[in-house]
Amino acid sequence: MKMKLRIKLPFLFLLMFVLLVVAAGLFLRIFILGNEFVNVDRLREKYAAENRQIADNVSRRYPDMQKIATYLKQVSQERHIGIKLFNDDLSHTLLVFPNPNGSRSSFGNWIPVRAAKHRLLFQLEVNRVGKLYLTLLSPAFIKGLYFLLFIFCMVFFTLTLHFHIKITKPLQLLSTRLKNVKIGNSSVSLYSKRKDEIGELYQYFNQMEQRLYQAHQEQINMIAAMAHDLKTPLTSINGFVELLALQKNLSEKEKQEYYDLIAKKSRHMVELINSFSAFTRDELELETHPRERVEVKKLFERIAAEYETELSSLNFRLHWNHSFKGNQYLCINEHMIRRVFGNLFSNAVRYGEKPDLQVYLSGFIQGNSVYFQVEDNGQGVPDQDLASLFMKFFTVDKSRQTKKGGTGLGLSSCKSIVEHHGGQIEAFHSEYGGLAIRFSIPLAR
Ligand SMILES: Nc1ncnc2c1ncn2[C@@H]1O[C@H](COP(=O)(O)OP(=O)(O)OP(=O)(O)O)[C@@H](O)[C@H]1O
Ligand SMILES: [Mg+2]
Q1: Which residues lie closer than 8 Å to 304 by C-beta, 6 or more apart?
Q2: Domain boundary among 288, 305, 338
Q3: Does 348 sit in the ligand 1 pocket, CB within 6 Å?
Q4: What pTM did the predictor assign?
Q5: Which ligand is nearest to the CA of 393?
Q6: What residues make up the domain containing 63?
Q7: Which one of the ligands is nearest to 388 CA?
């Protein structure tokens, strides 16, 4: 049955309430009919004795009907009972004194009134109001029962209200917000002082909205940066093409120069597009590529050996050292981690701008994480740019960049890979004079 929580909860509480009242009623009845059974018998005997006494007194006043009537009227009023007097064969009603408490008598007794020698004079009917077992309950007890019922009602309403305010309403609010979530709009955060699951839910919802907003902003920024990077060479190409089309008297040499420039700018555009697609491919690969257990020492030494050869072929030197032992492992996607090293080494070579460039690779363990550090003795990065290095499309010097050809996506991609592995990455000034990049990856258990 599909039922909204705001209806289901009160309904469940109502059901609980009814069941509780029925159970209490049943218990009370069983309790009284069972445990008080002895008392009922005792009461019955007491009433029987009373009835016999009334019959004896009637017999004593016989045959004075006036005296009998006065006596029975007095007894009826004093004891709050209904009395009827019939003749011996019940064919006539002689006297009737209704119960002063009302006419609904629930239990009655017939008592024969006999004279001496057991001659039957009259038949007497005595009626007492109410159920026999109820007469056993004191008025305070009955009041207590009503009070209990009232408390039940209050608890029921309080619980329903509490659940409505504390659960149904926040859930309703969350579902309305989820229904109206807008990616590009960071609306007012949901606020709650609560520290329980609902408070956490609000907090996670706010974080989700924030992430959506940031992702949207990043998307816009990325498109803007891509458009900007592509526009520059495209504007040049356009200019040269127009020049070639309009200036009919250009020499062959000049024409060739313009063709070469167009080819150069086109190559730059292809490079840009290649790095954009490599970046998106990396991001997608991060989600899909499996991880494997890799021994840190072996990984480090393999990478160091590979880049030592590569750098020496460019006449640069790589110095490396580590403090890893044989039984330390990482759970990584090695292919992606290698991309991080690849970008860090290519950056050192590309931006170091020094003929005797030295690159330093070190590795160590601190706490539960493995740290890798790549440094160089090159130009370095100004203080104010250190924090921005990991932003997409960030490059330190735009004019220098045109010559070097980077798009500013490498370090952003490194950050994304490292964070995907549960680690962190940071940039600082190296003691060797250039830039130092350090990143961590948690050790495998
Ligand atoms: N070792 C370094 N020394 C000096 N500057 C550096 C160094 N590494 C990075 N940078 C600066 O940081 C910027 C960002 O580097 P990043 O690797 O993100 O992009 P890129 O190298 O320009 O492009 P891509 O890596 O996408 O080809 C570079 O443009 C450069 O200005
Ligand atoms: Mg780079």
Answers
A1: 318, 320, 361
A2: 288
A3: yes
A4: 0.60
A5: 1
A6: 37-132
A7: 1
